[in-house]
Structures are given as structure tokens and as C-alpha cells.
Design brief:
By secondary structure, the protein is of the alpha/beta class. It has 13 helices and ten strands. A hairpin with a 2-residue loop joins strand 1 (3-5) and strand 2 (8-9). It has a single domain, classed as Rossmann fold, CATH 3.40.50. The protein starts with a strand and ends with a helix. An eight-stranded mixed beta sheet has the order 3-4-6-5-7-8-9-10, sandwiched between helices. A two-stranded antiparallel sheet has the order 1-2.
Length: 290
């Protein structure tokens, strides 16, 4: 066996990251996500496709809380899809649980690979967060009560938002443009991803791995962070969370791990949007703590 990463040979490493074949209910979960998101978007009032940048993919949607009040806290949600798939439109199925709790839901798009490299994707997400903070009053949310969450690639991008020096993004921004974060099943070490077939579309090189792997970076914001990974996920996805939790906790960040029992990579998002789950309750508690 020729090892290419830790104890993994090429086949074994790819098996850790090629997720769709692992669970037989994945097509059903994806169909539910898309169907329920379309249903939610048809009945929830919101402002769609607001441009936060000059390119087509630099757009976001804003859904006000169910009670309609202005100046609500807001959750900025970043979708997953290995940086090359999916869309903000597919995330709306989890919005109602937050809207019913009095929280606005903001979901954003970013340019996907191979049309954008990792540096550009991270930059676009940073500019989206900056746009929401600067335009909070206009879209009816409280800029002092913004939070960021994301799943998979979106979990990686959420962690990258935590590792951002916001003064370098926009001089008008405070050091903490959001007050907390939650990363679900995130990828925090991009080196093994670089060594898989996924990289044919992503195009990682060692330099971009170093710049964009949260595990190798320092958190730049002293705000609380929730990490959660599905109980049924692969060993590598479990490792990503275990190592980021250890590294960032050692650097003084208030990181909390919240279990996602019986969840795999595709069901943890629905779990996050379930008002009865401990994960959802932990996110709501964070957003109401201030």
C-alpha cells in the first residue's frame, strides 16, 4: 500500500471524501432539501438575489423573521457542495425554524470552482459578510447581532470568516462584524482534499492550502463558535472537527462541540434546522445570549 496521506492510500483517502455513495438515503435527502426549499421560497416573503458584488454569483437573499419586525438578529448562512456544487436556493428549507424564533435568515452564493479559486471564494464570502454589516439597516437587521453558519464547504468558509482580519477587508468594519458562528461538518484541513479527485475541480496547490486551512490559522475574533459533525460521518470529517476544536480551544477561543446523533453529512443540515434538536437550540441560545 502506497500511503499518500497519513494512513491512507489513494483509494482509501478518496473513499473518505466521496460521500454520496456512503448512505442509501442521500438521493431522498437531497430531493427533500430541494423540494422543501422551493416550497419555503414560494411562501416566505423575502428579498431575493441582492447583489453584494459585481459578478452574477455574488448575490444573497434576506428573509425577515415571521413576526416581521425590523432590526432583528440575523443568521448569515453559507451553503456547502465542495465549493463546486449547490446554491443558496437549496438552503431555505431550514429558514423557517429561525424565522419563527425571531431571527432573520440571510443565505448567500459565491462563485463555484473551477470558475473561481479558493482565495476568490473566501474573499467573496468576506465581502458578503461586510455587505450585510454595512447595509444592515437597509435590509432590516441589527448589524450588532449578526451570526454566521455554514455546512461542509460552508463550514470551512465559516471558519475562514473567524480567521479574518476584517480591517483588511474594509476599513469601516469593526474587528467583530458578527457575534458568533456555527460550522457544521466543516473541512478545516485542505491538504487531504488537495490529494483527492475532488481537486480536479478545486485546483488547490500547497500555497492555497496553507492560506485557506483554518487548522493552520489563528482565530482573529473572540466570539463563541459551535462545531458539530454528524455521528455517522467518515473518520476524516470527524478528525477535521476534533483537530480544529483542539487547536482553536488552545488558542483561547470559546469553542463548543454539539453532538448530532445519528446524522450523516447530508442529514445534519436538517438537524440544524430542527427546533427540537440540541444543535438548533444551541444556536438559538447563542443568538439570544446578548
Amino acid at each position: 500500500m502506497d500511503r499518500i496521506y497519513r494512513s491512507y492510500d489513494d483509494e482509501a483517502l478518496n473513499a473518505q471524501y466521496n460521500l454520496r455513495p456512503l448512505w442509501p438515503d442521500v438521493p431522498e435527502v437531497i430531493n427533500y432539501r430541494e423540494t422543501e426549499s422551493a416550497r419555503a421560497r414560494s411562501r416566505i416573503p423575502g428579498r431575493l438575489d441582492i447583489a453584494y458584488g459585481p459578478t452574477q454569483k455574488e448575490a444573497l437573499d434576506v428573509f425577515p423573521p415571521t413576526d416581521g419586525r425590523s432590526g432583528a438578529p440575523a443568521l448569515i448562512y453559507i451553503h456547502g457542495g465542495y465549493w463546486q456544487l449547490s446554491d443558496k436556493n437549496d438552503t431555505t428549507y431550514i429558514a423557517p425554524a429561525f424565522l419563527d424564533a425571531g431571527i432573520a435568515f440571510v443565505t448567500l452564493n459565491y462563485t463555484l470552482t473551477p470558475d473561481a479559486d479558493m482565495d476568490r471564494i473566501v474573499d467573496e464570502c468576506r465581502r458578503a459578510v461586510a455587505w450585510v454589516w454595512k447595509n444592515a439597516a437597509e435590509i432590516g437587521v441589527d448589524r450588532d447581532r449578526l451570526y454566521v453558519a455554514g455546512h461542509s464547504a460552508g463550514g470551512h468558509l465559516t471558519a475562514m470568516m473567524m480567521a479574518t482580519d476584517w480591517a483588511q477587508v474594509d476599513a469601516e468594519l469593526p474587528a467583530r462584524p458578527f457575534q458568533g458562528a456555527c460550522a457544521l461538518s466543516g473541512l478545516y484541513d485542505l491538504e487531504p482534499v488537495r490529494l483527492t479527485v475532488l481537486n480536479e475541480a478545486i485546483g488547490l496547490v500547497p500555497e492555497t492550502v496553507q492560506r485557506n486551512s483554518p487548522l493552520y490559522l489563528d482565530p482573529m475574533m473572540d466570539v463563541p463558535m459551535i462545531l458539530s459533525v454528524g455521528e455517522r460521518e467518515t473518520d476524516e470529517f470527524q478528525r477535521h472537527q476534533t483537530e480544529l476544536f483542539a487547536a482553536w480551544s488552545a488558542k483561547g477561543l470559546a469553542v463548543t462541540e454539539v453532538a448530532a446523533p445519528d446524522c450523516h453529512h447530508y442529514t445534519i443540515v436538517g438537524h440544524f434546522g430542527d427546533p427540537a434538536s440540541d444543535l438548533h437550540k444551541a444556536m438559538i441560545a447563542m443568538m439570544r445570549a446578548d
